[in-house]
Amino acid sequence: MPSQPLPPSPRKIIHIDMDAFYASVEQRDDPSLRGRPVVVAWRGARSVVCAASYEARKFGVRSAMPALRAERLCPQAVFVPPDFVRYKAASRQVRAIMLEHTELVEPLSLDEAYLDVTAARTGLPSATAVAEAIRAKIREETSLTASAGVAPNKFLAKIASDWNKPDGLFVIRPQQVERFLTPLPVGRIPGVGKVMQTKLEALGIATVGDLRARALEDLQQRFGSFGAALYRRARGIDERPVEPDQPVQSVSSEDTFAEDLPLEALEPAIRELAEKTWTASRKAGRVAHTVVLKLKTAQFRILTRSLTTDPPPSSAQALADIAVALRERVALPADTRYRLVGVGLSGFREAKETVPQGDLFAPPL
3-class DSSP state for residue 57? Predict the structure, then answer.
């Protein structure tokens, strides 16, 4: 009888997440900020929090929160304007340390990345040992701390990295996956926000164990393709590989106004943002075929309108002209006021590729 092929060995995945990264860089570089609640944000009525130190988080301050609310929650907070030049420099240091252990590093942002260390190049005996070595060298070389999650896949590693924050390490071994996941609230699954969590709880699904009890067909019928993803996550299944050097998918710039503006007054801002977006897109080495206009109303309603063209925009002015024209696709009342506008490019392709002619407009939101 022919022998059965052995099942593939599980991957060894690490998720590294720098602790309160922007705020920690500020505290590292300015000793007077250490131990104090630091909020990285521009001051102003429309500013939002880029990052908050753990001292500030104790007061409920969080990233993406309006800066005015952060100031109300923590009046003693020290507000520091962001300095992305320094943050990027620290991020490059951290990335170099990761690459010492594996070439399979997938950056998610300046402060986090996935690593596949199934075949680590440093010869350390386990993924846990690799994670410990990375964290130790980050501390030694940058004076910053990082948390790490070690698991058989990306989904679990990301959950694990948040488990012992800050400056922690958590390991989920293959034989522990089901026991670990079963009691977790469904809100711990990436992609399950407050709205989806409410929908699941209305069905009696409060934990991952409850979710696992649901049939695939039931979840798909209720939630489409996301239902299938929920079915897999409830079983700890995630087959996505770590993908280093992913090509740029989109580039955008946006601005929040000091006061709300009508649609017809947005052209100067759109043209300025188009220039920034165009300049940033030149670094991608690829060609974008889709122009995106993003708007946020005074009531925080977000709209996007997009147009795919062939040939693609060939200059900042062409990009700006298309973005300005996309305002005509906004069907809200004329007296609507807008607090934010953004201009983006997506649909990046290699320069030699061709795209069928036509245009694609995002449906009204």
Answer: helix
